[in-house]
Specification:
Helix content: 55-70%
Number of strands: 0
Radius of gyration: 29 Å
Protein name: DUF4148 domain-containing protein
Organism: Paraburkholderia metrosideri
Strand content: under 5%
Keywords: Signal
């Protein structure tokens, strides 16, 4: 029990020291906010927008980004598999002895491109 209390106390000290250094680096600026035309284009607040306040929009955005990345990976994989199939139909054997590797794939690429 005493050892667990020491660990918690040590973690609290480390956290306090870390936060002490971090807060000085992220303190608020004393610069005045922009005025005129630049005020319309530059953000003046570091607070999240109202639409993101409930977290639901943020999750939806993350899900959409994840879906986009997944679709991109799937498309890339399909393209690479199609390229490999085309090379294999033109004589490339990826499981064969690779002692003449550059030549055998280059020959298959030439056949596939019609040269």
């Amino acid at each position: 029990m005493a050892q667990a209390n020491r660990r918690v106390h040590a973690l609290a000290i480390v956290a306090a020291i870390s936060l002490g250094f971090a807060t000085s680096a992220f303190s608020q600026s004393t610069a005045s906010p922009p005025t005129g035309a630049s005020a319309l284009t530059s953000p003046t607040s570091t607070q999240p927008e109202a639409s993101m306040a409930n977290g639901k929009s943020s999750q939806t955005t993350k899900q959409a980004q994840s879906d986009t990345r997944k679709a991109g990976r799937t498309a890339n994989r399909a393209q690479k598999n199609a390229e490999l199939d085309k090379l294999e139909k033109n004589g490339y054997k990826p499981t064969a002895n690779q002692s003449n590797y550059p030549d055998n794939i280059q020959n298959a690429e030439k056949k596939a491109s019609g040269q």
